[in-house]
Amino acid sequence: MPPTFDEIVASLTDAQREAVTQTDGPMLVLAGPGSGKTRVITCRIANLIHQGVRSHQILAITFTNKAAAEMKQRVAAMMPDQRIWISTFHSLGVRLLRQYADRLGLDRNFTIYDQSDRVGVVKAALKSAAIDVTRFTPETIQGAISKAKNKLLLPHQFEKQANDYFSQVVAQIYPVYEKKMRDANAVDFDDLLMWPALALTKDEEMRAELDARFRYVLVDEYQDTNKAQYEIARGLTIDHPNLCVVGDPDQSIYRWRGAELRNILDFERDYPNARVILLEENFRSTKAILRVADHLIAHNKKRKPKTLYTAKDEGSKVGALLFETGLEEADLVAQRIRQAVEAGKRHYRDFAILLRINALSRALESAFTRQRIPYQLVRGVAFFERKENRDVLAYLRLLLNPKDDLSFVRAVNEPARGIGKTSLEHLQKYAEPRELSLLAAAEHVDKIPAIRGKAVTGLKAFALMMAELRGVLEATPDEVMRQVIDRTGYRRMLKESDNPEDQERLANVEELITAAHQFHAEDESRTIADFLENITLASDVDGFDEKQDCVAVMTLHAAKGLEFPVVHMMALEQGILPHERSLMRDEELEEERRLAFVGITRAQEELYLSYARMREFRGQTLYAVPSMFLEELPQDGIETSDLSSSGGRTSPAVNTWRGSTAGASKGWYDTGFSDPKASREHERPEDDAPTGYEVGVMVHHDVYGVGCITEVSGQAALRKIKIRFSSGERSFLAAKAKLAIVQPT
DNA sequence: ATCCAGTACGTTTTT
DNA sequence: CGTACTGGAT
User: Distance between CA atoms of A49 and A214, rounded to whole angstroms?
Assistant: First the structure.
């Protein structure tokens, strides 16, 4: 029997209850980590409904789709059958843009470009504006445009305040970029916030309409809102200032993305009669963990101090673990996890490994695979970023939005249709002055004399095929996907390829059909367009499934809002955490410290901070300097163990390396020995005695059938090979496995 | 037009 | 170390 609403309210602390029951007027909830923030928000929503507020008058905004889904579920548990609008800022933006498309001068079928699409647009803009900048990468320029948009600066406004050379270059490209976006009927992530924000500040009629519609607005993770998001929240709550924002300045980790800590710090200025509630009691972590977190974050100067406390036990000491190398770190952390599970103390799902950068996950993946430890890498969108999947999705995007030139270029010659670089350039030259999309130009290919031969028939066939496929769009998402894969020839291309990697690509593309099917099965009203939108707006954590019994591996950013019994934070080394690019500026360094704080406060019972003496980086092994944050922890609160293979015997004191070489500022020191590849070269006599087992060779196994070798490692008796069968990947000792090489026919 | 091999290049974090 | 792009050969 679930508790009644009254029982739930009764179980809240005084501060929490006040945040839940004071529903009218502006409210700022400063919620420390683990202080029951989500509980407060969901109870507040439930309470509003309890008081008779209509569910469609409530808008709750979260940071990720996962958080939104969770919140919906928790509200539904208390107040069933209510349809409350809970979404991310970006999803809200999409809905507003589609709803008010006419008013904003947008076509309703716009495509949402992700960052890699945007880089493509910048490249195209550079090309068509004939600007040749070798000094700045398209990525950097894209980043600057993104920043401008976060600040709600349109091209002409940006130009006015472009003082340095870089900004002036960006100012030249920004309007071209915008033109291309409009021509392609595309919007980027920032547009999803910028357009609604500008509309709310400029179109009073629209603003008042929306303000009246959303009587109660709640914003989670308010410390991470940027100017555009601020204006959206503000614009919706002028006539009905029932805005409740929840956040923690100490957990602000998106400054680089335009987040303005000022938004939360100045809330009381914007809403002078705001009620401020502090949630300082932590219900998540042990005293030992909380003390470490508190001590660390106290080193930030630009900060409002607050006291964190918990009624929980002291718990075990926080462990600082030193390893010899990054590889050992991964191996031994994996081993510790496995031993705890095998001893029956823990489940795999109790563990999380938190990393500053994604690149660190490689070593872990290999350690987990070797030790047969189940894990999930929380990097949800990676699957859709594979070339083959992007290709297929490009077809779909082009079908839904024929003006999407970027997708046209991507799809038109994959599989090959004889349309090369020169033909495409001719097509572009024809289309641009005529304000035609590339697809429309392809339909007129007869009028373009410069295009000849195979390219003519190829373009015609492509245009015709797209026209035919457009008729399929009404089918279910999975059926549309299947038709696209089949009728574009994409499946055939992969199937007939003799490159073994293409068989995996085929499997991935087929997985898209399954994904579309599942998407539809969850809610039958969803279309293929919804599917595409969902993919582009998905965040990394969205794919994380805490019910699966495996170790979670993710970045510190992705971990925000989650909690785990045991947390391992890895690579606490200068240059990684804090990241080398933050070392120059105090504000960025403080953000790194907050990032560490977020990581530490994810832990409920046990926390381990690990680092290594040496770390392989970009092919060479460098000495690492322990993170300055380790020195900022209460020394009596942590227990340091040297688990390195040398046991600390041979290593000189870390301090003797400091500040001597050029690498000092970055925190890296050359170890003086060359990269491991060189030494591996010595011990590779196995290449002289070929066994026929090479990557790409097809083999037959008595049990698993035919598979393809994906990896060969080790030598002689220890030579191992990894084989991918249709049933999955398996490793064998080459000497023992009953394998026969299948001769290609 | 296409393919491949060689090189240049860069690497935080993400909706 | 890996990928992405360029320039050469076919």
Answer: 14
What are the angstrom distances between the C-alpha of A514 and each of A66, A501, A508, A726? 21, 20, 10, 17
State the Cα–Cα distance between residues A219 and A230, nearest whole angstrom.
Answer: 10
Q: Sign of torsion, CA A402 A407 A408 A412?
A: negative
What is the CA A282 to C1' B14 distance in angstroms? 28
pLDDT tens profile A382-424:
788 888 899 999 999 999 999 999 999 999 988 888 888 888 8
> Which residues fall within 8 angstroms of residue A352, CB to CB, at 6 or more apart?
A551, A552, A553, A554, A559, A562, A564, A566, A567, A568, A602
**Distance separating alpha carbons of residues A434 and A443, to the nearest angstrom:** 14
Beta bridge partners of A100: none
Is there contact between A417 and strand B, defined as CB under 7 Å from any strand atom?
yes
| Identity of the residue numbered A27 | M
Residue carrying structure tokens 């030579």: A719
What is the residue-wise DSSP string for A192-245? Answer: HHHHHHHHHHH-HHHHHHHHHH-SEEEESSGGG-BHHHHHHHHHTTSSS--EEE
Question: H or E element: which one contains A516?
Answer: helix A501-522
Q: What is the mean pLDDT of residues A453-457?
A: 83
- Nearest of A638, A549, A541, A556 to residue A602 by alpha carbon: A556
- Asked if strand C comes closer than 7 Å to A421 Cβ, the answer is no
**CB-count exposure of residue A398 (10 Å: 0-12, 13-18, 19+):** buried
- Residue A602 annotated as catalytic: yes
Give the Cα separation of A411 and A390 in Å (integer): 9
Closest CA to A321 of A363, A359, A353: A353
> Which DSSP string do the residues of A402-414 spell out, in sequence order?
TT-HHHHHHHHTS
Sequence-distant (6+) residues with CB within 8 A of A122 are A138, A141, A142, A145, A173, A177
Nucleic chain B contacts, protein chain A, residues 118-157, CB cut-off 7 A: 137, 139
In this complex, the answer to whether residue A301 has its CB under 7 A from any atom of chain C, a nucleic strand, is no
C-alpha–C-alpha distance, residues A349 and A730, integer Å: 23
Residue A618 beta carbon within 7 A of nucleic strand C: yes
**What are the CA-CA distances from residue A519 to residues A180, A479, A524, A533 (Å)?**
31, 12, 8, 12
- Note the pLDDT of residue A286: 96
State the pairing for strand pair A603-617/A564-569: parallel
- Distance in Å from C1's C1' to A617's CA comes to 8
Q: How distant, in Å, are the alpha carbons of A7, A94, A180, A372 from that of A108?
A: 46, 10, 17, 48
A498 assigned to active site: no
Strand A85-88's sheet: what is its strand order? A85-88, A58-62, A216-219, A243-247, A27-31, A275-279
DSSP A447-478: G-TT--THHHHHHHHHHHHHHHHHTTTTS-HH
Q: What secondary structure letter does DSSP report for A743?
A: P
Rg of chain A over Cα atoms, rounded to whole angstroms, equals 28
Q: Catalytic residue, from A237, A251, A325, A601: name it.
A: A251
Residue pair A475/A486 in contact (Cβ under 8 Å)? The answer is no
Q: Please, which pLDDT band fits residue A37 given cuts at 50, 70 and 90?
A: very high
Q: Exposure pattern of A455-488 as b/e (b: 16+ CB <10 Å)?
A: bbebbeebbeebeebeebbeebbbbbbbbbbebb
Give dist(CA A57, CA A74) in Å, integer: 18
Do the bridges between strand A620-624 and strand A603-617 make them parallel or antiparallel, or are there none, so unpaired? antiparallel
Count other Cβ atoms within 10 Å, centred on residue A739. Answer: 20
User: Which residues in 181-200 of chain A line strand B, with CB less than 7 A from it?
Assistant: 189-190
Q: Give pLDDT tens digits for A591-625.
A: 999 999 999 999 999 999 999 999 988 777 888 99
Total-model pTM: 0.85
Buried residues in A269-296 as b, exposed as e (16+ CB within 10 A) = ebbeebbebebebbbbbbbbbbbbbbbb
